[in-house]
Amino acid sequence: DLHDDLGSNLAAIKIGLEELRSNDEKPAYLIDMVDNASTSIRNIAHNLMPADFENTSLTELLDKFYLRLNTENKISFQFYSTGTNHRFNKQEDLMIYRIILELTNNIIKHSGAEKATIQLIYYDQHLEIMIEDNGTGMHNQSTEGIGLNNVRSRVDYLRGRINTDSGPIGTTITIHIPYTPVQ
Question: Which of 9, 10, 72, 77 has the lowest CB atom count within 10 Å?
Fold first, then answer.
């Protein structure tokens, strides 16, 4: 919806601006802004629900995501997954995906890290997600932003627990999510 609705509106605005440009060169910077907004919307929409999410495992999606990040970013990301996910449905996988993307985004924006490691460990009774970086730590945990509040809400919804250990040499976030009981 985000991509289809807002994206099509931006495309219509761009067409109108391009028509104006033939008469006056001033709208050129507006066209660039619309292009940038369209790219941002496409990226946000892709991260909310990747196009191939229904047909691709969470591990494969994250593998591709971190491979791409390593080519676009100065932080070196390592991603590992052990065990097999046979117990989460696609909606739960999507929530886990969004949790991991938000925490990764926080590393990129706020950590000052050079390296980060993301691990998914599928145990018999639960999934453990461990996200570590060698950044400067979380300086003020009492003023968590919307992103971390969303992470906590998603973890709570999945009946999980989250633990944060942060100091001047990095941050480790561990999330424990039990599998949904079979009904």
Answer: 72
